[in-house]
Amino acid sequence: KAGVTQTPRYLIKTRGQQVTLSCSPISGHRSVSWYQQTPGQGLQFLFEYFSETQRNKGNFPGRFSGRQFSNSRSEMNVSTLELGDSALYLCASSYTGTGLGAEAFFGQGTRLTVV
Amino acid sequence: LAKTTQPISMDSYEGQEVNITCSHNNIATNDYITWYQQFPSQGPRFIIQGYKTKVTNEVASLFIPADRKSSTLSLPRVSLSDTAVYYCLVGDGNYGQNFVFGPGTRLSVLP
Lengths: 115, 111
What we know:
The complex is a heterodimer of chains A (115) and B (111). With 115 residues, chain A is an all-beta fold.
Protein backbone atom coordinates (compact mmCIF):
# COMPACT_ATOMS: atom_id res chain seq x y z
CA LYS A 1 0.00 0.00 0.00
CA ALA A 2 1.11 3.57 -0.55
CA GLY A 3 2.99 5.20 2.29
CA VAL A 4 2.59 8.57 3.92
CA THR A 5 3.07 11.36 1.41
CA GLN A 6 4.29 14.79 2.39
CA THR A 7 4.41 17.74 0.06
CA PRO A 8 6.42 19.65 -0.78
CA ARG A 9 9.69 17.88 0.03
CA TYR A 10 11.69 21.10 0.16
CA LEU A 11 10.66 24.68 0.78
CA ILE A 12 12.49 27.98 1.16
CA LYS A 13 10.63 30.89 2.71
CA THR A 14 11.48 34.35 3.95
CA ARG A 15 11.09 35.51 7.53
CA GLY A 16 7.60 36.82 8.19
CA GLN A 17 5.95 34.74 5.51
CA GLN A 18 3.59 31.86 6.18
CA VAL A 19 3.76 28.31 4.93
CA THR A 20 1.39 25.38 4.54
CA LEU A 21 2.61 21.80 4.53
CA SER A 22 0.51 18.85 3.43
CA CYS A 23 0.34 15.25 4.59
CA SER A 24 -1.61 12.41 3.00
CA PRO A 25 -1.79 9.46 5.41
CA ILE A 26 -1.96 5.81 4.52
CA SER A 27 -5.41 4.88 3.25
CA GLY A 28 -7.66 3.97 6.16
CA HIS A 29 -5.53 5.68 8.79
CA ARG A 30 -7.43 8.23 10.83
CA SER A 31 -4.68 9.56 13.09
CA VAL A 32 -2.16 12.07 11.80
CA SER A 33 0.60 13.53 13.95
CA TRP A 34 3.09 16.25 13.15
CA TYR A 35 6.65 16.57 14.44
CA GLN A 36 9.42 19.11 14.09
CA GLN A 37 12.98 17.84 13.92
CA THR A 38 16.03 20.08 14.36
CA PRO A 39 19.63 19.17 15.14
CA GLY A 40 19.47 20.94 18.47
CA GLN A 41 16.07 19.86 19.78
CA GLY A 42 15.59 16.49 18.12
CA LEU A 43 12.10 15.26 17.31
CA GLN A 44 9.39 17.33 18.97
CA PHE A 45 5.68 16.65 18.88
CA LEU A 46 3.51 19.41 17.41
CA PHE A 47 -0.05 18.06 17.36
CA GLU A 48 -2.19 15.07 16.53
CA TYR A 49 -5.49 14.89 14.68
CA PHE A 50 -7.99 12.08 14.69
CA SER A 51 -11.16 12.15 12.62
CA GLU A 52 -10.78 15.89 11.94
CA THR A 53 -10.36 16.75 15.64
CA GLN A 54 -7.17 17.85 17.34
CA ARG A 55 -6.62 15.37 20.17
CA ASN A 56 -3.22 16.44 21.44
CA LYS A 57 -1.02 19.49 21.18
CA GLY A 58 2.63 19.97 21.98
CA ASN A 59 4.36 23.02 23.43
CA PHE A 60 4.60 25.18 20.35
CA PRO A 61 3.42 28.77 19.91
CA GLY A 62 0.09 29.57 18.30
CA ARG A 63 1.87 30.38 15.03
CA PHE A 64 1.81 26.63 14.45
CA SER A 65 -1.60 25.31 13.55
CA GLY A 66 -3.08 22.40 11.72
CA ARG A 67 -6.22 20.81 10.48
CA GLN A 68 -7.48 17.53 9.17
CA PHE A 69 -9.97 16.98 6.41
CA SER A 70 -12.70 14.38 6.11
CA ASN A 71 -10.45 12.20 3.93
CA SER A 72 -7.85 12.25 6.77
CA ARG A 73 -5.42 14.41 4.82
CA SER A 74 -3.84 16.97 7.07
CA GLU A 75 -2.25 20.36 6.65
CA MET A 76 0.07 22.23 8.95
CA ASN A 77 0.44 25.99 8.81
CA VAL A 78 3.16 28.17 10.25
CA SER A 79 2.57 31.90 10.21
CA THR A 80 5.05 34.73 10.65
CA LEU A 81 8.02 32.48 9.99
CA GLU A 82 11.16 32.86 12.08
CA LEU A 83 14.67 31.66 11.31
CA GLY A 84 14.32 29.11 14.11
CA ASP A 85 11.44 27.45 12.30
CA SER A 86 13.91 25.97 9.84
CA ALA A 87 13.56 22.24 10.35
CA LEU A 88 12.45 18.92 8.96
CA TYR A 89 8.69 18.62 9.50
CA LEU A 90 7.49 15.06 9.73
CA CYS A 91 4.01 13.68 9.53
CA ALA A 92 3.04 10.27 10.90
CA SER A 93 -0.13 8.33 10.39
CA SER A 94 -1.62 5.40 12.22
CA TYR A 95 -4.95 3.62 12.21
CA THR A 96 -6.05 4.68 15.67
CA GLY A 97 -3.09 6.45 17.20
CA THR A 98 -3.55 4.52 20.40
CA GLY A 99 -2.98 1.12 21.88
CA LEU A 100 -0.71 -1.83 21.31
CA GLY A 101 0.31 -2.24 17.74
CA ALA A 102 -0.60 1.34 16.92
CA GLU A 103 2.44 1.58 14.73
CA ALA A 104 3.10 5.04 13.37
CA PHE A 105 4.20 5.34 9.76
CA PHE A 106 6.23 8.43 9.01
CA GLY A 107 6.52 10.34 5.77
CA GLN A 108 9.84 11.52 4.37
CA GLY A 109 9.23 14.98 5.68
CA THR A 110 9.29 18.51 4.38
CA ARG A 111 12.58 20.35 4.75
CA LEU A 112 11.71 23.98 5.48
CA THR A 113 14.41 26.62 5.30
CA VAL A 114 13.63 30.13 6.48
CA VAL A 115 15.98 32.84 5.24
CA LEU B 1 5.89 10.62 31.11
CA ALA B 2 8.32 7.75 31.33
CA LYS B 3 11.73 9.18 30.50
CA THR B 4 14.15 7.00 28.60
CA THR B 5 17.92 6.90 28.67
CA GLN B 6 20.00 5.39 25.88
CA PRO B 7 23.67 5.56 24.94
CA ILE B 8 24.28 8.51 22.65
CA SER B 9 26.37 6.51 20.22
CA MET B 10 27.68 3.02 19.48
CA ASP B 11 30.10 1.54 16.99
CA SER B 12 30.00 -1.95 15.57
CA TYR B 13 31.44 -3.97 12.73
CA GLU B 14 29.58 -5.66 9.93
CA GLY B 15 28.32 -9.10 10.83
CA GLN B 16 28.26 -8.50 14.56
CA GLU B 17 25.23 -8.57 16.80
CA VAL B 18 24.39 -5.19 18.29
CA ASN B 19 22.51 -4.71 21.54
CA ILE B 20 21.18 -1.27 22.45
CA THR B 21 19.83 -0.92 25.95
CA CYS B 22 17.25 1.62 27.02
CA SER B 23 16.47 2.51 30.63
CA HIS B 24 12.95 3.54 31.62
CA ASN B 25 12.77 3.36 35.39
CA ASN B 26 9.34 4.96 35.78
CA ILE B 27 7.50 3.03 33.09
CA ALA B 28 3.77 2.85 33.77
CA THR B 29 1.58 -0.23 33.76
CA ASN B 30 -0.11 0.73 30.49
CA ASP B 31 3.09 1.67 28.69
CA TYR B 32 4.54 -0.23 25.76
CA ILE B 33 8.13 -0.05 24.55
CA THR B 34 8.66 0.84 20.92
CA TRP B 35 11.82 1.21 18.88
CA TYR B 36 12.21 3.29 15.74
CA GLN B 37 15.07 3.62 13.27
CA GLN B 38 15.86 6.83 11.42
CA PHE B 39 18.17 7.49 8.49
CA PRO B 40 19.30 11.06 7.69
CA SER B 41 16.60 13.26 6.15
CA GLN B 42 14.00 10.52 6.42
CA GLY B 43 11.17 9.87 8.82
CA PRO B 44 11.58 7.30 11.58
CA ARG B 45 10.66 3.72 10.75
CA PHE B 46 9.01 1.34 13.19
CA ILE B 47 11.23 -1.59 14.15
CA ILE B 48 9.58 -3.44 16.98
CA GLN B 49 7.23 -3.06 19.92
CA GLY B 50 6.72 -5.05 23.10
CA TYR B 51 5.20 -5.07 26.54
CA LYS B 52 7.11 -7.78 28.39
CA THR B 53 9.47 -10.74 27.92
CA LYS B 54 10.74 -11.18 24.37
CA VAL B 55 9.45 -10.14 20.99
CA THR B 56 11.08 -11.10 17.70
CA ASN B 57 10.37 -10.12 14.15
CA GLU B 58 12.23 -10.37 10.87
CA VAL B 59 14.62 -7.53 11.65
CA ALA B 60 15.17 -7.45 15.42
CA SER B 61 14.47 -8.84 18.85
CA LEU B 62 13.34 -6.93 21.90
CA PHE B 63 14.15 -8.22 25.36
CA ILE B 64 12.22 -6.86 28.33
CA PRO B 65 12.99 -8.08 31.87
CA ALA B 66 10.24 -8.79 34.37
CA ASP B 67 10.51 -5.39 36.10
CA ARG B 68 10.24 -3.63 32.69
CA LYS B 69 12.60 -0.88 33.84
CA SER B 70 14.82 -1.44 30.84
CA SER B 71 14.72 -3.03 27.43
CA THR B 72 17.30 -4.19 24.91
CA LEU B 73 17.01 -3.97 21.16
CA SER B 74 19.06 -6.68 19.49
CA LEU B 75 20.07 -6.40 15.84
CA PRO B 76 21.57 -9.63 14.51
CA ARG B 77 24.47 -9.50 12.08
CA VAL B 78 24.39 -5.78 11.28
CA SER B 79 25.39 -4.42 7.90
CA LEU B 80 26.56 -0.99 6.78
CA SER B 81 22.95 -0.11 5.94
CA ASP B 82 22.00 -0.43 9.60
CA THR B 83 23.92 2.76 10.33
CA ALA B 84 21.20 5.03 11.69
CA VAL B 85 19.76 6.59 14.82
CA TYR B 86 17.68 4.27 16.99
CA TYR B 87 15.01 5.65 19.28
CA CYS B 88 13.46 3.94 22.28
CA LEU B 89 10.02 5.22 23.19
CA VAL B 90 7.85 4.36 26.15
CA GLY B 91 4.18 5.24 26.21
CA ASP B 92 0.66 4.00 26.05
CA GLY B 93 0.65 4.12 22.27
CA ASN B 94 -1.11 7.45 22.17
CA TYR B 95 0.64 9.46 19.50
CA GLY B 96 0.41 12.67 21.36
CA GLN B 97 2.42 14.17 24.15
CA ASN B 98 3.08 10.71 25.54
CA PHE B 99 5.00 9.78 22.41
CA VAL B 100 8.31 11.41 23.20
CA PHE B 101 11.44 10.91 21.16
CA GLY B 102 14.67 11.24 23.11
CA PRO B 103 18.04 11.93 21.47
CA GLY B 104 18.32 8.28 20.39
CA THR B 105 21.42 6.14 19.85
CA ARG B 106 23.53 6.82 16.81
CA LEU B 107 24.78 3.44 15.59
CA SER B 108 27.75 3.42 13.24
CA VAL B 109 28.46 0.14 11.49
CA LEU B 110 32.03 -0.09 10.22
CA PRO B 111 33.33 -2.37 7.44
